[in-house]
Amino acid sequence: MLRFGVDLGGSKIEVLALDDRGGERLRRRVPTPKGDYEATVAAVARLVLEAEAELGKMGSVGVGIPGALSLVTGRIKNANSTWLIDRPLKQDLERALEREVRLANDANCFALSEAIDGTGRGAPVVFGVILGTGVGGGIVAHGHLLVGPNAITGEWGHNPLPLPTQDDQPLPECYCGRRGCIETYLSGPGMARDHIAAGGQAFGAEEIAAHAAAGDATCAATLARYEERLARSLASVINVLDPDVIVLGGGMSNVERLYLEVPRLWGRHVFSDRVATRLARHAHGDSSGVRGAARLWG
């Protein structure tokens, strides 16, 4: 049996086919038709159908989305790809593909992939974190993806940044309608905005890290602020969930300093005399989300 996973991202849509052994059979990606819901549905369906035609076999379909499926309305909520909000995406995809489709938050898919055969393999409790265009999270406990009665398990990115300091003011506006969400500080765009506000150039995260390593004082200060904010935020997660491992994904996860500096900083905020939680980089890169989507079918 083939399992197709789709990663419906803000900038690209990717399809992946896994065989019974978890081996990759095919991978394709296209740009996301931003702002166009009908074109987005058509692009997802076309990718899957073309993949099936190429492989000569149908399969199950799981889709990772930048939001969640409302358990009340059956429509999409909490999506930073805002053109999906309040749309019946599951029903429309099922109509286009003529079969059941399983949807899950993209961070949940990331966490599932990393817990099954990635960096978190064998760990009882895994918290998977996306630090990219947005900030999301997913929890896998003893091999099971947790969803919750509100379908928001792991959504730490829309909690307020803990213990805001003067450096964190004014609280940035978030697309969700609140101010001071963790996402507004720890997303890639959030870090870039913070750097510009501090007098820096329009650099991406890896550029900021590289310039910091080369001695650029403004970049070093931006990176230090980011690390301290991430430490505060993850400490709050540890205090509530106490996971065995936290796996980072998304563009910001490529900043190597985080894995040394953040655990060094988070101890002052964790309610324990020792922090045994491990902070680790993803094993599957930007493939984790699409692999997890395929694994929504087991």
Read across the widest sheet, the strand sequence of neighbours is 3-2-1-4-7
Q: How far is it from the N-terminal to the C-terminal residue, by CA?
A: 11 Å
Query: What is the number of domains?
Result: 2
- Name of the CATH first level of the largest domain: Alpha Beta
Any idea what the CATH architecture of the largest domain is? 2-Layer Sandwich
Q: pLDDT under 50 segments (min length 5)?
A: none
Q: What is the subunit arrangement here?
A: single chain
Order of helices and strands: EEEHEEEHEHEEEHHHHEHEH
Query: How helical, in percent, are the residues?
Result: 25-40%
For the record, what is the CATH homologous superfamily label of the largest domain?
ATPase, nucleotide binding domain
CATH topology of the largest domain: Nucleotidyltransferase, domain 5
Radius of gyration: 19 Å
What is the 3D shape? globular
